[in-house]
């Protein structure tokens, strides 16, 4: 009887819990959140009046938001230049109602995008001759680069406008003032600066500038309070600064790739990330302002990628491309796993990251006089005349602490009685504990230094400030542990960092650089190209940071950062360099020039490799490392038209009505017999076939068209580099051009009947004896 009563009470309790859960789901779904409502092209018959468009958008909101919540009838952002739409606070139900209206293309949550955080240009100059006077004489036209990022530190010497001519009359942008930013902060180099509402920084900072020291807790201005935007802007188009360094490291001349180009800043990001609604608004403004190139070093997580018309960067970039503006984006830092690359729309130039021929070396000298060449940025006061006892983290575990936690320098895992005054050795088998956390744990434990064994990140220097730190790989780690076993009292010293140049091999694909194939479609080869993104010296905010500023030093005007965020502005600068010499080239022609002339060999003239030492494939590095001077004279280019992109969307599965709204053309119709396989037919500078199925013959043919941008009366002959078993045939095998500007088409047939399963990588190269036009391919045989 008791059991039956208990069972009934359990059932009743479960019933009540189900009711409560359903009510919670209902209430949660009715909580207003920020959504972006995208309404397609603004049309070609002149830009609509922004005030009229805002009135229409508010009217649309008032039709679905209850009158008792009229305070929500408010726009966060309004888009009215190149495309239409707005962002506002909506419930899930209201967003669903709007998404069904005829004039609405898509409705999606206002997500938070993440930042993808100069010797580099010298290195590219050595490899391609970018710094030659001949090259710069050809690059004389004004180019305006829009940087969508965290803002700008205008006082940096990298934004000095000395020697620059008057601002181009076509510029329609503005320099918006803030409480700590004046119109006079803009000049002939830094010609525009905007910021967007809602970009709050939660951490106040102190700045040492010519105006004294001040603290602020939010950023109602274009001023950078993180440093990311300042760094990327100066990488792309910073003025030449002599004797630049980071506290003596990487000393030399700092400069951007397009030092004569102008900069327009669009601050959309804060410490918390970048609101997608603000990023979309910034692209809309940049298009209207008159920029030529847009650099975007941010994006969605590779885990939660959206389709192309629910991605603010893809949407904005499409309309920018329509207006003749090339959008360059970072590919993400989620490597080395496949399917991690982001910003993969075919109208975007997607960038992977590589190393340069410089290493920041922090040597470890063991008690037996062996020297281990670790990597780090540390400014400790250690010298060769001293040494400290060595202890492995696992041997310093506190009471009741798992050995695995102590070996990873997990917070609270170390016994300070065992670690004080010693150098700790930790490993990196737990990715949840960052290098910064390990360093802080070692400091709090009273250690004199930290040696981190980390095979993955051993080439990406961590900045530990005045604390002695060095990072090594597994082989060097095993060497140190063997030494510790050989003696009763092992000792070591970690020396301050020095920079070593002319490292070989270089470039190398960075470990963190996101890899292809693209998760949204494997029929477009992504990333597109690779550029320097490891240990890049560029402008910074002169802000004191207790963790990284060396003791007794003033804040540096430069910083060393790594990430595809740093690679992206290298390509934006290179694109501006090419555009300055060829102002009439379309965005796809510039992209083509950079891709087909990219290098696939390193400074040893051997095949490019990954950080593990394996040969890099085209999912790792795209078409290869950019070679800006070669891109000035590519010989042939692939010109991808807006219509090509519309067909891509057709093949991808979008309906006629959606594509018509996107492009503002009510007459557009998708071709019949649609298939995702047809995406490979897009006139792109690379080729990717997602499925070459042996069960259906294992043969596919794609077509490409090229334009001669070289001399007249030239003949190009093709050469194929294909893996064993994959047959590649080109027809015709010769292309003859009577004049400059002449077009020609060819077909490429892939036969995989005798190929092994999986991706096959190769290339076909057209040559007229003076130019090499390489098209790389990735063919997935199943």
From TrEMBL:
Chain ranges of the Subtilisin-like protease fibronectin type-III domain: 681-778
Domain called Inhibitor I9: residue spans: 35-116
Record keywords: Hydrolase, Protease, Serine protease, Signal
Signal peptide: 1-29
PANTHER family xref list: PROPROTEIN CONVERTASE SUBTILISIN/KEXIN (PTHR10795)
Domain of life: Eukaryota
Gene field: ARA12
Peptidase S8/S53 domain location: 141-605
Annotated organism of origin: Dendrobium catenatum
Protein's name in the database: Subtilisin-like protease
């Amino acid at each position: 009887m008791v059991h039956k009563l208990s069972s009934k009470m359990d059932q009743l309790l479960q019933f009540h819990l189900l009711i409560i859960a359903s009510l919670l789901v209902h209430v949660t779904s009715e909580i207003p959140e920020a959504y972006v409502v995208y309404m397609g092209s603004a049309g070609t018959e002149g830009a609509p009046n922004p005030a009229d468009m805002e009135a229409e958008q508010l009217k649309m909101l008032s039709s679905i938001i209850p009158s008792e919540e009229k305070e929500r009838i408010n726009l966060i952002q309004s888009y009215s230049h190149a495309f239409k739409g707005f962002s506002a606070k909506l419930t899930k139900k209201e967003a669903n109602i709007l998404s069904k209206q005829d004039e609405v293309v898509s409705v999606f949550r206002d997500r938070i995008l993440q930042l993808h955080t100069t010797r580099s240009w010298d290195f590219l100059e050595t490899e391609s001759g970018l710094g030659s006077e001949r090259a710069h004489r050809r690059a004389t036209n004004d180019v305006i680069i829009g940087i969508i990022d965290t803002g700008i530190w205008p006082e940096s010497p990298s934004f000095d406008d000395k020697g620059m001519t008057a601002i181009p009359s076509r510029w329609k942008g503005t320099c918006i003032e803030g409480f700590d930013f004046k119109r006079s902060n803009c000049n002939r180099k830094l010609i525009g600066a905007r910021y967007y509402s809602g970009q709050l920084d939660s951490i106040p900072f102190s700045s040492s500038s010519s105006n004294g020291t001040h603290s602020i807790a939010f950023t109602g201005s274009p001023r950078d309070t993180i440093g990311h935007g300042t760094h990327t802007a100066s990488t792309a188009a910073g003025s030449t600064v002599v004797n630049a360094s980071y506290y003596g490291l990487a000393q030399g001349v700092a400069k951007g790739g397009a030092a004569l180009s102008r900069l327009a800043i669009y601050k959309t990001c804060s410490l918390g990330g970048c609101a997608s609604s603000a990023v979309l608004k910034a692209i809309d403004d940049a298009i209207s302002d008159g920029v030529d190139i847009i650099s975007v070093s941010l994006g969605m997580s590779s885990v939660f990628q959206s389709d192309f018309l629910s991605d603010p960067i893809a949407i904005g970039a499409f309309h920018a491309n329509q207006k003749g503006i090339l959008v360059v984006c970072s590919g993400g830092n989620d490597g080395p796993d496949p399917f991690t690359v982001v910003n993969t729309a075919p109208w975007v130039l997607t960038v992977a990251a590589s190393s340069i021929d410089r290493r920041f070396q922090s040597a470890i000298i063991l008690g037996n006089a062996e020297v281990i060449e670790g990597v780090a940025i540390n400014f400790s006061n250690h010298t060769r005349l001293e040494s400290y006892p060595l202890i492995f983290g696992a041997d310093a575990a506190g009471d009741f602490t798992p050995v695995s936690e102590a070996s990873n320098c997990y917070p609270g895992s170390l016994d300070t009685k065992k670690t004080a005054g010693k150098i700790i050795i930790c490993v990196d088998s737990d990715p949840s504990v960052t290098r910064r956390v390990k360093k802080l744990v070692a400091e709090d434990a009273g250690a004199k230094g930290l040696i981190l064994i980390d095979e993955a990140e051993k080439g990406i220097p961590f900045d530990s400030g005045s604390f002695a730190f060095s990072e090594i790989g597994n082989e060097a780690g095993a060497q140190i542990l063997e030494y510790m076993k050989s003696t009763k009292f092992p000792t070591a010293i970690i020396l301050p960092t020095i920079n070593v140049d002319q490292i070989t091999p270089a470039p190398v694909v960075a470990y963190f650089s996101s890899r292809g194939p693209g998760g949204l479609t494997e029929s477009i080869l992504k990333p597109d190209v690779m550029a320097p993104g490891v240990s890049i010296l560029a402008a910074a905010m002169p802000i004191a940071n207790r963790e990284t500023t060396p003791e007794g030093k003033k804040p540096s005007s430069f910083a060393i950062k790594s990430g595809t965020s740093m690679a992206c502005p290298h390509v934006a600068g290179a694109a501006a360099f090419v555009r300055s010499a060829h102002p009439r080239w379309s965005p796809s022609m510039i992209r083509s020039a950079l891709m087909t002339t990219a290098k696939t060999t390193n400074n040893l003239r051997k095949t490019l490799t990954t950080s593990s030492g394996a040969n890099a494939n085209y999912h790792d590095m795209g078409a290869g490392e950019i070679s800006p001077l070669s891109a000035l004279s590519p010989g042939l280019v692939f010109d991808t038209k807006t219509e090509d992109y519309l067909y891509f969307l057709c093949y991808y599965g979008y309906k006629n009505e959606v594509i018509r709204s996107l492009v503002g053309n009510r007459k557009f119709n998708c071709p019949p017999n649609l298939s995702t396989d047809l995406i490979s037919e897009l006139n792109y500078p690379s080729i990717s076939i997602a499925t070459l199925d042996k069960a259906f013959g294992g043969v596919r043919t794609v077509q490409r068209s090229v334009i001669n941008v070289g001399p007249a009366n030239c003949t190009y002959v093709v050469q194929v580099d294909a893996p064993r078993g994959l047959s590649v045939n080109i027809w015709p095998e010769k292309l003859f051009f009577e004049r400059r500007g002449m077009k020609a088409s060819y077909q490429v047939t892939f036969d995989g009947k005798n190929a092994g399963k999986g991706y096959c990588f190769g290339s076909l190269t057209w040559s007229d004896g003076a130019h090499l036009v390489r098209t790389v391919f990735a063919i997935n045989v199943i």
